[in-house]
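User: Continuing from earlier, I have the next pair ready.

Assistant: Great, send them over.

User: Here they are, in order.

Assistant: Folding the first of the pair now:
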Amino acid sequence: MKTPTRFETHEDELLSFMQSCWQLAQLLNDTIDAIQHLEQSHKEKKRSLRYQCGEHGVQKLSLLVVPRIMKITEKVHTKFVSSDGPGSSPLGPPARPSFGSDDDESP
């Protein structure tokens, strides 16, 4: 659609442009109404299914995620920090050394 630049002439172009703008506004309003309807029905569906177990039952997060806590000795921590280097940044990911047993180091 061509936007009229001179409003003194070509009344047909101006009328066509205005009708297109009104159609666009109406389509946008219809779209917003449809989105609001979908949002409301989604909220109702979530609310109705909140406490139902469902087909597979409710799983606890502890069954899906197995946390592993490692004790890092001072020797391993020193290797970790030294491999990171002087240009290390707390914002970036550190270099990852291999965590071996304490037998790796010779005196």
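And the other member of the pair:
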Amino acid sequence: MSVDYIKVKDWSIVPTKSEICFDSKCFNIINPRLITLLPSRINHIPLGFQMTLPIGYIVRIKQHLSGKPWKIINEYLTAENVLTPVHISIITPYETQLQPGEILTHIQLQPITGVLNSIEGKHTLNAWAQIKKLIFCLFRYG
């Protein structure tokens, strides 16, 4: 199984194979340009490419443990957000700069049957639960 990456911006860095994890291919997502993350808000980081997934698969986002104060808050790229240029949502307790070439995250192609219950739970969260999660993360990493 493979994922097709289509560059939509000249500055995008399309993922390359980096390692095997959990019996699936895992890829690094590299920050394509200098980005400033602002505190107390959700920062959407555009990656400048689109993805085409095989039928029955989903892409899981895994936080890269780099000792950085920011946290990625979206865990999956699902059918509704792979048709547009990919972005990652990040929160941080204070202003932080992401350098070009820095590893942002790892992504992994997984069968949708293995994560279906988790995804359904994510879509049923109401706005208040999302706000509480954001506040918790800001205080936890602040």
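Worth noting for the second one:
The longest strand covers residues 103-111. The chain has one domain: 4-140.
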